[in-house]
Design a protein that fits this description.
With about 280 residues, this protein is α+β, with helices and mostly antiparallel strands. The chain has helices at about 5-10, 15-20, 25-35, 55-60, 65-75, 120-130, 135-145, 150-155, 160-170, 175-185, 225-240, 250-255, 255-265; strands spanning about 15, 40, 45, 65, 85-90, 100-105, 195-200, 200-210, 210-215, 240-245. A hairpin with a 2-residue loop joins β7 and β8.
């Protein structure tokens, strides 16, 4: 077997033993290394020159990509982090120094010896401890909503307390993390809140009470999308709803202002049906 072809099939980075099991001979592997088609990452690991940089660094350090880094790679909502998050068994040993944030954690679901990316469940469990509650909840809700994990299966696992709490609190309604964070921060009001309620032909991010609509803008709310949003807001107002539109980063960087706007609207009774 051609080692380049096999490495492509394996994601670009793999163990020497795995290549041998796939039918790659030592002679063909040595020839591929000699001509630069395959590179040695560390003892026992090989990679294509074009391999994913994060996977290559994981192989070099003897870790797996996990926590928020793995979640983002799987399309789960998380906030950006300055350095990759990786995991290794508490009894393991780093193969090389790394600038990544290392989680020394026993996996909830066992990892295969060839794995360079953690299982999604393991990444969620680690994120439950690593991230603040509301950020972790947003990630869990994102994974559940996209059906990347099964709630009943999760309930059957031996989850640590933080993960068990997020599983209990998670609801599969949030379209993005901002909705989870806002509803979590306003839970103390005891007001009824519905996420992704369908109004005037479109879903709204959060409906508080009967009439207060909270819309959260992300980076995609520009140009044509902005025109659609403006028209929908206008239709909602004509129907008697009060709309507060905020930016995603306002929630994270200026929550005091956002909270004041929402609570003032509630104090004025704008969340209630006008009699």
């Amino acid at each position: 077997m051609d080692p380049v072809t096999v490495l492509v099939q394996l994601g670009g980075v793999a163990r020497f033993q795995t290549l041998m099991k796939r039918g790659v001979t030592r002679h063909r592997l040595s020839a591929a290394i000699a001509c630069g088609a395959v590179e040695r990452v560390r003892i026992g690991w090989l990679a294509l020159p074009t391999a994913d940089a994060d996977l290559r660094r994981a192989a070099e350090a003897g870790v797996v990509l996990s926590c928020v880094t793995l979640l983002r790679r799987r399309g789960v909502w998380t906030l950006p982090v300055p350095a990759p998050h990786v995991a290794i068994h508490p009894k393991g040993t780093l193969a090389a120094r790394t600038a990544a944030h290392v989680h020394w954690a026993v996996p909830t679901v066992p990892r295969a010896p060839d794995a360079l990316e953690d299982r999604l469940v393991n990444a969620l469990v680690i994120a439950a401890t690593c991230q603040p509650y509301e950020h972790g909840l947003a990630a869990w809700e994102s994974a559940i909503r996209q059906q990347l994990v099964d709630v009943d299966t999760l309930r059957g696992l031996a989850l640590p307390p933080d993960a068990r709490r997020l599983l209990r609190d998670a609801k599969p309604f949030a379209d993005a993390g901002g909705e989870t964070i806002v509803s979590s921060r306003l839970r103390w009001t005891k007001l009824p809140m519905r996420r992704q309620a369908s109004l005037a032909g479109h879903h709204v991010d959060l409906l508080i009470g009967d009439r207060l609509v909270i819309q959260i803008d992300g980076g995609h709310h520009v140009d044509a999308q902005r025109l659609i949003d403006n028209e929908h807001d206008a239709r909602l107002r004509l129907m008697g709803y009060h709309v507060i539109r905020i930016g995603h980063w306002q929630i994270l960087d200026d929550w005091a202002t956002v909270e004041e706007l929402i609570l003032t609207a509630i104090a004025q009774g704008l969340h209630l049906v006008r009699r």
